[in-house]
Amino acid sequence: MNNKLKIAIAAVIIAVVIATSAPIIGTSANKADDSGSSTSPTSLPSSSSSPSAEQKVLRIGYFPNINHAQAVIGLGRGDFQHALGSNVKVETQVFNAGPSAVEALFAKQIDVTYVGPNPAINGYIKSQGESLRIISGASSGGAVFVVRKDAGINSPADFGGKKFASPQLGNTQDVALRKYLLDSGYKTKENGGSVEVIPAANADILTLMIKKEIDGAWVPEPWGAKLVKEANGRIFLDERSRWPDGQFVTAHIVVSAKYLKDNPDIIKRLLEANVNETDWINNNPDQSRQAFNEELKKLTGKTIPVDEYNEAMSRLKLTYDPEKNSLFKSASDAYEIGFLKEKPDLSHIYDLNLLNEVLKDRGLQEIS
Predict the structure, then answer these.
(1) DSSP letters for 279-334
(2) Is there a contact between 137 and 321 (Cβ–Cβ < 8 Å)?
(3) Contact 116, 172 (CB under 8 A)
(4) Given Cys at both, which of 1, 25, 95, 259 links 101, Cβ 3.0 to 4.6 Å?
């Protein structure tokens, strides 16, 4: 054997040894805050994993809204990544409204997403109950119907000929607005009525209100508070008044049914992180507001003024309870306004087994 061949063989052996001995290095998305500071949620134990274990991926969708505050803060600061463990690579995608997030779930671009009830309902029906499951709540309340002070709207009797906006056709606020108009005796223009409803991104709704190109909008917080402060708006209706107990689901966590089946351990750790983040935000309002704004600025370049944030949070409740009854009512409303062709069977849309395991482990009340 000549010297060149010996050297080549030795080089290969060294390369193999190095490759098989090196630990898996986490990406920046897996970085966690281990400082133990009181300004962070209580640290959750990350899953034990050996360097040789297979690294998996969890792709999470969410909105830069306060009703998705757990995701905004938890993903931005690394709390979720720490809870999921070093062998789970977290990738994120930010959306403006629910239908887009569900479409991404179906396209296998994400595995799990924070989303409102109606897009989840539509996705469940579209896939004949096969493709997604609701696994936890995220928020309740926090949606309002705001009208311009100078729009001449003092009661539903003044809706005729008006132009309103919602974040996206078929999203949760869009269905709520259309159902309210129907209950008030109005049809939309596409159905032969006099009221126009247009879809627009929340930021665009603010601009349209300022320019007086719309008369009002049904929006999630903090956009309701922003329309009041920055667009000469006033709250015409707080959606909580439309519900018997004032509680209705605004956002919950939806997962691909296949990913849930294949990776229950990862999903349980995600739910642990969400419960932990929910409790920390609720118990630390000032610190969580600062944390939310820090992460929101990274995502959008903007922050929410303290007064707008506090006003918005006064109408919003962060909770891991999915408020199931309100989802069934939302489905009935979507059917009544014609978004659904038939009354849906949602008997298997929820899978709360892992959430209840987490709650039981913590001595918290389980969801029936």
Answers:
(1) HHHHH-HHHHHHHHHHHHHHHHS----HHHHHHHHTTEEE-S---HHHHHHHHHHH
(2) yes
(3) yes
(4) 95
Half-sphere exposure (Cβ direction) of 220: Cα atoms closer than 13 Å? 32
Give the separation between CA 255 and CA 214, rounded to whole angstroms.
36
Separation of alpha carbons 37 and 272, rounded Å: 19
224 closest CA partner among 242, 239, 244: 239
Record the tokens describing residue 367, joined without a space: 């969801």
- Mean of the pLDDT values across residues 91-103? 90
Residue with tokens 């990274």: 298
Reference 58, options 235, 315, 259; nearest CA is 259
Write the burial class of residue 95 (CB in 10 Å: 0-12 exposed, 13-18 middle, 19+ buried). Answer: buried
* Single pTM value for the model: 0.80
Closest CA to 269 of 39, 1, 90, 100: 90
Q: Which of 323, 147, 134 is nearest to 243 (CA)?
A: 323
Q: What is the pLDDT of residues 271-314, one digit of tens each?
A: 999 999 999 999 999 999 999 999 999 999 999 999 999 999 99
pLDDT tens for residues 310-359? 999 999 999 999 999 999 998 999 898 888 888 889 999 999 999 999 99
Q: How far, in Å, CA of 329 to CA of 326, rounded?
A: 5
Give dist(CA 309, CA 65) in Å, integer: 11
Q: How many residues does the chain have?
A: 368
CB neighbours (10 Å) of residue 324? 19
Please say whether the beta carbons of 127 and 234 come within 8 A. no
Q: How confident is the model at residue 30 (pLDDT cuts 50, 70, 90)?
A: very low
Cα dist from 91 to 56, 78, 255, whole Å: 11, 12, 15
Complete DSSP assignment for 195-246: BEEEE--HHHHHHHHHTTS-SEEEEETTHHHHHHHHSSEEEEEEGGGGSTTS
Give the three-state DSSP class for 138. strand
d(CA 267, CA 303): 30
263 DSSP 8-state letter: -
- Assess whether the previous peptide bond of 222 is cis (omega < 30° from 0): yes
